[in-house]
Design goal:
8 helices, alpha+beta, binds zinc ion, single chain, Zincin-like, 14% strand
């Protein structure tokens, strides 16, 4: 009885990351989680973690993507991983533009922060979220133009976003990370 109640409570939270996807796809992910097959499936598709471990490395990684795809967009003044970004609220990354008066000019300071959970993720997931935040330098809304720009930078954007959300759903359901062993090897202090 208690278990049933917990399941009833956790179910809506489990699928929050997949809201908006066709019910059949959501049910498939739920089934894979229930059968403990989602983690292995993700690991098979994305076998390795990336090595972008520090904020400095992340700055360079974001800079390279920006140079390749959005050369004319304004420069970024700050790029970092951010522990404070709450995955629960679905904020995986954050881009901010802070307008400051400098002399008699208004200067915009642009920052990108990426949720720390992406440090222990495959490169494809990091790329997806960075592409998302970079696209916001040009388009602020999540409209058609925005997703066209995302797909221009990463042709597999939609598949990556779905797989990323499947992973987040697995995390939310309490499943262990498909890359837990690799992460432990990269974080010897923990
Ligand atoms: Zn966004």
């Amino acid at each position: 009885m208690a278990l049933r109640r917990i399941q009833a409570m956790s179910r809506p939270r489990r699928i929050q990351y997949l809201a908006g996807y066709p019910p059949t796809l959501v049910a498939e992910i739920q089934r894979l989680i229930d059968e403990e097959r989602l983690g292995p499936a993700l690991r098979k598709r994305y076998p390795a973690l990336h090595t972008v471990r520090s904020d400095r490395a992340l700055y360079d990684y974001v800079g390279d993507l920006k140079t390749n795809h959005l050369r004319s967009a304004p420069p970024l003044s700050h790029v970092s991983y951010d522990n404070g970004l709450h995955v629960i609220r679905n904020a995986l990354g954050l881009h901010t533009t802070i307008a400051r008066v400098q002399g008699n000019k208004l200067k915009a300071k642009r920052e990108i922060r990426i949720a720390t959970l992406f440090r222990d993720a495959p490169e494809a997931f990091l790329r997806m979220i960075v592409v998302h935040e970079l696209a916001h330098l040009r388009v602020s809304d999540h409209d058609r133009a925005f997703y066209q720009l995302c797909c221009h930078m990463e042709p597999d954007y939609h598949q990556l976003e779905f797989d990323l959300r499947a992973w987040l759903t697995l995390r939310e359901a309490g499943g262990s990370s498909p890359w837990a062993d690799d992460a432990a090897a990269l974080n010897p202090d923990i």
